[in-house]
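User: What would this chain look like folded?
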Amino acid sequence: AFVRERDWDQFHRPKNLTMALVVEAAELMEHFQWLSLDQPLEEETFREVREEVADVFIYLVRLADELGIDLLEAAADKIEVNARKYPADRVRGSAKKYDRY
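Assistant: Here's the prediction, encoded as C-alpha cells.
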C-alpha cells in the first residue's frame, strides 16, 4: 500500500530492488566496520542500526513479493540444504566452508 500510494511500483523492479537492498545492507555494515568484536553499540548507533535493518527487511520483502517468493518457505528450504551441506557432527565449532572439511 505504501508503494502504491506513492506510485513507486514503476521503480520497484527486481533489478532496482536488489540494488537498493545491497545499498541498505552496506549502510548497515558501515555501523559495525570499525567496532571491536565485543564492543557494544551506543544507544544512538543502535537506533540507526535498527532503521537500517528495517530498510534491508523492507527491500527484501518487496523483492520477494515482486518475484512471487514465499520468504518463509524459501528460508525453510534453504535451512534444509544447509543442514545437508553442514552436518552438525562434522562442522560443530568450525567456520570452514562446506568444501573445506
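The mean pLDDT is 95. If you want, I can go into more detail on any region.
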